[in-house]
């Protein structure tokens, strides 16, 4: 061994290196909060799924399974839910966790003073809407503790409740810690959870450390003793850390051609369908798209999605003609004639509709695509602009905006024409994707799509339990948005990670949720 | 008394500068389009109203400004908009020592290595070693940190696997090595080049020639007669270098994933985290004023002519 190598080896042996049993996970940006009710980003959601457990939770494959509740039953009309909690349920400090704790936590979630950004996901619970508007007391929420181990939830709308109860917004919080420490109850040593892990360290903008919670009801099945989530804001730097062995699971993968990544990483590259859709929105409230369905249709037809997903995104994304991704629970995609056409027929039809809209080589459409700062967004906008120019002869400008400015402009619907849009599911439900197009005053309705029949279909679907009638209504609603050409669907997302090949239990799933409790090091191969 | 008056003048000037800085920064932040709570998935109106009230955004701008100045006078930098679990004081208290520790170590090493290298090169002026050292330092000083840092990672972390490729673990020195080297190398290059130029110039001056004429040895000539005067350009460079490394090099912190103050400025601005950006500006501004004062003092100590003019 050469001298420098020897010196470094000795120093490394002496240094307080990471524990040999510690799992290190890339987690993207710094989590904004560890308060379950204030979390709205992926980064904090990942941590909270290790620190807390809702009445139900998600298995490694994303299926909803029993969590803090060991069983439940639902009334025939889908509005009355009764949960039976596990007998041995404890907080991470050893105190008993009861049904009353869930009642108090859900009340806190919908109290306006908590300012929980995702509280509207609990809106189907009786009285939640009125409480959120400040028109009713939190105590009137339709959640009651029948006894210490039985919880009753009364719904106004028979939504698929279990999906929502697995979200951070429905996880229990330890109110005595909040009473004593206020917003600082999320610090190590103060945060009391009920998940598989307990918080042991938090260095802002560096890492969040956790260790196994011995009071967790399934602690004996939790194999990874310690986990450290590290902030990885840059995909390129995260990749270097993975290559150096400093990170065992990456949050994402930098955009590189799939064959190159496959050749370099083989089975360590994990790509799965992800319930998210990417589209370009068209502002229907102003020229040139207002009252101009022919132009909108021409633009939708003139995009070659295969080229986009093969050469621009290139990491397992699926070409999209619709809004709701395949694999969304209770979804049936509408039959779209456009998707059945050959590429050549699609181009011919696009030109025909462009001409019908009154445009030609002498009078080309003047368009502007607006997107927020991102290399991928710029590439996509460039490619789509080129397709519109080549196929139709449209003149297209690109406008890049910083995120906050972009969000504000898109919502205002005053200066936008074509804009980057999309949706990642909060819950695995087609309604989640379609609701963004309902109501002209809806701040999420950035296209300004207004269709009373569409709104009525969504309202009706919200009142139906899962089943064929609900699915049919949502399929018809999706078809209405698409036939109005309010958006140019481009692709459905995929999740992508690099995973250390000594790790087992990391399974692809539609919401890209991967709780550490399902993972383990292959015997004898811990790093 | 003269020193006391000078100190009072510098203090008043510093406070005035800080006030102007705070006012300008406050105005610019609030004039920028997009607000701290503009997100893709908008919160319900009642929630937005609560957030606005919590951060005083429902008040007129003039009242927000006066309230901020009042809090600032009490040493309270306010709650962070983006990270509601933390106050700005807490975030800066955690990040400033990291930035200052790395930056201070990098600068100290740059001085400890750069000055001898500069003296050595000057002693061999025009020789092969001098030309080699100057070529090396010219390359290093021209190399951007966003190029240098990944090269270091590729070499020492990915290829040799001697050190971590990034991240931060409190108390583990291994995570500090590459960031310090990345921060140090360009500073070392500047320091060496400035020292060499200063020593070469001093060696050609009349008083050094006179000293040489008196038969003083080469080493003493270099270190006692030429070096103090040659260090003046280095001290002039020291002030901006000190400020740059202590307030955090955002690029190096970003590449290595270090929880320093530089990143808060960038992230805070992007997130419209008004209080966090203001907090970083106030602390950085105060550091700039203190650093300038200290360096001015050092220069006056090294050069009596500056003392007289002051």
Automatic annotation (TrEMBL), chain A:
Family indicated by similarity: Belongs to the bacterial solute-binding protein 5 family.
Limits of the Solute-binding protein family domain: 65-442
Protein name (Swiss-Prot/TrEMBL): Peptide ABC transporter substrate-binding protein
InterPro entries attached to this UniProt entry: Peptide/Ni-bd, SBP_5, SBP_5_dom
Pfam families noted in UniProt: SBP_bac_5 (PF00496)
Subcellular location: Cell envelope
Key words of the record: Signal, Transport
Family matches, as CDD domains: PBP2_OppA
Automatic annotation (TrEMBL), chain B:
Membrane topology: Multi-pass membrane protein
Annotated family: Belongs to the binding-protein-dependent transport system permease family.
Organism: Tahibacter amnicola
Keywords, ordered alphabetically: Cell membrane, Membrane, Transmembrane, Transmembrane helix, Transport
Protein name per the record: ABC transporter permease subunit
CDD domains listed in its UniProt record: TM_PBP2 (cd06261)
One protein family per Pfam: BPD_transp_1
Lineage: Bacteria, Pseudomonadati, Pseudomonadota, Gammaproteobacteria, Lysobacterales
Keyword Amino-acid biosynthesis recorded: no
Main location: membrane
Ranges for domain ABC transmembrane type-1: 96-295
InterPro entries registered for this protein in UniProt: MetI-like (IPR000515), MetI-like_sf (IPR035906)
Keyword Acyltransferase carried by entry: no
Parts of the chain that traverse the membrane: 90-120, 132-157, 177-195, 216-235, 274-295
